[in-house]
Amino acid sequence: MTGDSRMQNFSIRKAEEKDAPEICAIYRWYVENTSVTFSTQAPTEDECRKSICEIQKMYPYFVALSSDGKIIGFVYGHQLRPHEAYKWNVEATIYLSHQAPMRQGIGSALYKKFIETLSRQGFKYVYGVITSGNKASLEMHKKLGFQEIGKFPNAGNKAGKWQDIVWMQKQLGEATENPPEPLPFSMLSK
Hints:
By secondary structure, the chain is an alpha+beta fold.
């Protein structure tokens, strides 16, 4: 991606199984060093590899690559809740490497690609669930048109501290009666 003078050179592509070690390393850093995720144990590389394959059957999974080919961020989706009536809604997960240059448009570009793909698939809403202390993520979601729809005080305790979570929502398409089923990502990407 180029064109915006504040952006560093990077590209975005569909995640592949071979990306699991780098994706795991990015997420592991957040698990071990922050309360941004409530996870207390990072998945193994094998679990991550399986997750990439499983998620992409229905939902997009993208990575951002630096100019030297290193993964500097990722975004993917999953169904908001397990019930059938939620199938038009997607919960997003996005992380940038703690070493990635900040405020360079990487997270926004990843999210825009993700949202555009979800829209093409026929999903109606995308949700972000963010710890209230994660100001950069809250700011990015607002900039991308997400609206705060709820706050859960003291939703989780990590590292001895209670954390609030903020639910944010972005409408992707018209919520008509009896909408067609979303197209699986595995079919869209062929």
